[in-house]
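Researcher: Batch entry, complex prediction.
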Amino acid sequence: MRLVVARCTVNYVGRLEASLPEATRLIMVKNDGCIAIHADGGAYKPLNWMNAPNELREFPDRWEITNPKNETLTINMLEVFSDAIHELGEDPGLSKDGVEAHLQELLAADPSVIEDGLTLISREYPTAIGPVDLLCRASDGTTVAIEVKRRGEIDGVEQLGRYLEYLRADTSLGLLRGVFVAQSIKPQARTLAETRGLSWKEVDYDELRGRRKDDLRLF
Amino acid sequence: MKFRVERAEFNDALGDVSRIATARTSAMPALAGIELAVSGETLTLSATDKEISIQATLSVGGQNDGIAVPSARILTDLVRGLPDGKIQVALEGESLVVEAARNRSSVHCYAASDFPKIIHASAAEGTVSADVFGEALRQVVRAASADLSRLALTGVLISNQAEGLTFVATDSYRLAVRQVAGTALAGESTVIIPARALGELSRLIKDAKTITYRLAADRATFTVGNTTLSTSLLAVQFPNYKQLIQPSYPNKLAVNREALLDAIRRSKVFARDTIPVRLTQGAGSLRLSVHTNDTGETIEELDAEYTGPEITIGFNPDYLLQGVEACNGETITIESSDPIKPAVLRGSTNDGYLYLVMPQRLTS
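Model: Structure tokens for the complex:
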């Protein structure tokens, strides 16, 4: 990752023409060739960017970046304050909230906590719209898709609904139903789940993670 | 206040002391600070979280006596990053100015009057071998609980008993007991010291030969070299642990310690939290196995000597590993009676240590 902080102007010529007037900005040149120009504000969206593959040519006073679509980004470097390269290594990807990921892990170890007779088919079952937290088999042979959240809110129910809609296209899974699982589930989320024919279950994280009431203790 | 000091010595002292400073207590912001007090040629560094305090003294080139309380974290990070050589430190107004080589940094200070007075135990002084005390702490502190809702379990019971000086800790899932024959502490004959304080004391011991201590009814103070740790004691009833240790057990397994450690570490790839490692003990062998629904399973056989009927016991892998690590000797013995009753681990050196660990229930 190369990070350049510079006073610069930027011109983009391609599908449209755009320019950025003179100001101090952060220019990120990522290892895969992506380039992003950031102002000192806004969480994630750059002012201007070019996705890889790109060709970057550096001149003493400017950078010219072109891509195969013949789009060109020209950064006129008026003053460079910092130019640093950092090896970031391979990124492990976005990790879920610690409690939520652990909750999923614990439920995968013993899905019968959610429903008697439930056995695990797969954890993080892959679909084109994202992985289903747990895919299980019920004692009657039904396939059960389970969405696990720390806090059960409406968006989690909707997410499970989308997964089920997608999974139903795969006839090899047979009869399919969904269970929404969380430490606590808001009344609106329960109502929405029931309206959509989904079950819901609240689970006790502390109990699951080894503080079970029937844990063997010395005293 | 003004003094000159070698960066390396200052850095080491800050490392020892600043760990105890805490930024968690918003009611007393000065607890995030480290008190620097110069008197003549001596600098005293102090930090406290009100329960535990650590003080270290250093010989410095004192130029002006005085006191300053800068942020412990900022000062420690700053000094750690400075080049070796002399550092000049001075209080200028409300800031501590640190000069080294061509760096000049200024750290805002807390009001010195906001920093609490450090209190040491008021009792007769005794000394104990740092090797003996440090090893006992290494073996026992690990079994103490961090759960403040069971306060008594967050401490280590240290008492003079007929068998010698006895250290005990338990979190209710395991119990560690170390008896040091022929040793007794002066002062209070029974104290419960917060395990957190003893963990800090272990770090201070390094290559020291002796520890000087004072045990009062409400406080303990330990001095290692130029560093002194004081802690309030826990005024709680320690559980009656003796009844948990049986005089003999019907099943006894003896296995190579290193081989067992390696096998447990490998099994931990699969075992965690609620997934136990299963120890199946039979004639001439020990089998460790872990089965998980989602990640897979592992099975490993070890040579072992065993007397008793074949038995399978499940253990929390971390608790088992910590117990084996704490036992000394080439061979470990595991004595048991039942898959749901505690098992006892001992090392072959017979150093007076035992580790009692509760099994986990096994499901089919």
